[in-house]
Predict the 3D structure of the following.
Amino acid sequence: MPEHSFATRAIHAGQAADPVTGAIIPPIYQASTHVQDGVGGLRQGYEYNRSGNPTRSSLETQLAALEGGVSALSFASGLSAEDALLRGILKPGDHVLLGNDVYGGTYRLLTKVLAPWGIETTTVELADVEAIQAAIRPETKIIWLETPSNPLLKIVDIAQIAEIAHAAGLILVVDNTFASPALQQPLSLGADFVVHSTTKYLGGHSDVLGGAVVFGDDRHYEQIKFQQFAVGAVSAPLDAWLTTRGIKTLAVRMRQHSENAQAIAEWATGRPEFSEVFYPGLSSHPGHEVAAAQMSGFGGMLSLGLAAGGDAARAFVENTELFQLAESLGGVESLIGYPPDMTHASVRGTPLAVPENVVRLSVGIEDVSDLIADLEQGLARVGR
Ligand code: PLP
């Protein structure tokens, strides 16, 4: 396909009409295996669902096109994508440098699942170049970051970290879940891999779990594909299809998520109930300029610190209505969560622990005046 702009690629890449029937939408190939024309006579390389499936292939083509990658692999969840990437590249004795604000499950995977197999992880403040340099060891193989990060919306200068990583012979992995490729394309800024929880903005409708690894070059494709094939954490055909459908509206959804979150961040900035507003679209955010340079919008995620502390934060998340109390993010409907006990419970007592007064909002695409009214009534109930 010629190089079309993002919104066009999101709708057309990997989505050619069915050549047999002309069906405008590629079918869901709900099959576990493929008939062979003689032993090893595979039709278009398809053999068995764990090694490949046409619906998954169409999602993978779409994902690679969106991130500007050479290829992509689609997994059963974001964490299984992360796991395949890490085990495909690392060996016992290797070391990972992890940004100090990331999804709790990523920290748990590295420190609880992979550490017993000999992978070491340290966390580092990625705004501090000297701290990064000091943390790099001879065994370090990967720098792993999120920007904006989960849940404190820290911004990391991807191009700067890519330069540091490559000068030291390291691989840079960027978890692009919060921004989505509609707002930020890390491979174009020097990252080697992008990972996603496609459960979030890419799927976009809170109806599917999935993950992806997108490759900036071919170097590690076979190793990571092998992990996927040998372990089997593939996305199911229906899940892959739902994700391709969600992606087609990603560009318009992200515009509205960003517009709504910006309005809520500005509203919250003036309120005495909040001691902190974590949103990179605010000019007061320490990462605002970097975010403005490397993103085309600031996204739909926003965190707030309650001035009255942890009990007020818990009470607030239990008293909103349109903002439903739930794990996850990135759907069209607004969600609210209490990271210290929910998404980030696994990092309590670690260097990644989330302050007790922080709540996290996944701002949906409802009418923003309804959303603000909901937050106002939630605050009023807490204050009572
Ligand atoms: N990365 C980020 C930034 C996340 O927020 C999450 C889940 O919340 C994941 C990865 C893991 O994805 P999944 O829940 O699809 O395994």
